[in-house]
Amino acid sequence: MNITSAIPAPPSRAKLITAFAVLYLVWGSTYLAIRVGVAAFPPFLMAGIRYLIAGGLMFGWLAFRGMRLPNARQWKEAAITGSLLLLGGNGVVCWAEQTVNSSLAALILASSPIWFAVFDTIRPNGRRQQLNTILGILVGTGGVLLLVFGAPAHDVKTNATSWVGAGALVAACGFWAGGSLYNKYHTSPVSPWMSTAAQMLCGGVANCLMGTVCGEWSSFHPAQATAMPLLAFVYLIFFGSIAGFSAYVWLLGHCAPAKVATYAYVNPVIATFLGWLILHEPITPVICFAAFIILGGVLVVQWPAKKTRQIPPLSGTRAPFRN
User: Is 233 a member of any domain?
Assistant: First the structure.
């Protein structure tokens, strides 16, 4: 057998550009949609039902087309990844946006590539980071602290819940980075589309369980779901989940995590503009300066550097696959 014929061809430039465009533009607008949606829907239930519908639609279509279903091990991996990404990384964001503006949420989450660099270092068989990465981590962290402590009083400093919301957004960055790296290095081979559907189903269940624990079913009143929150909810299902998350998972399978994480450059700009335009969220000099520092730190983290020797794998650990 010709060995080279068994190696899948790299994706075309057009597919990569399209996937990155979806990731940049659609995900930049989801912060606004979440902010509008949580005005009527409980946060974890909104995220859970969103992912159950989106994942169910994708899973049913793929099964109808005859795509191989995940096995028991792949369902377990989907449960871990889906919980990290969609409960810890997205459900927590929905909860936090009850008290934190969408633009501030996007700017805090712009620091996620810094978490990628940290977790990519400490994972088994991780990477030794260059001086520029360490410097970028420090700069980006300083920008996040400035954003939180220097934000307008009515956005974060109003009450204790708002402070918790800002802190939850920082934690969500860690969950998202951890889930993304786990998805790339520790999952069994499976179609990226079926993987996306399985992860959304598992993440939807995890969010609904969290919403149940938090008593959200009793606090939800369907009459509060007016046209705008309903429209935001539908947008999150079809664009934020099916289109955006599919593009994200697909890109993780074809690009380095640091390149995929560049969505953090564009998303805050779009989210800040839409928050200002539609919800009249303030854009202050402090916010602009903090955003400049955060994105500067992210840029330094991802600045091209000399290739470094990877840490030898620990005994019994599984080496990551290579693109």
Answer: yes
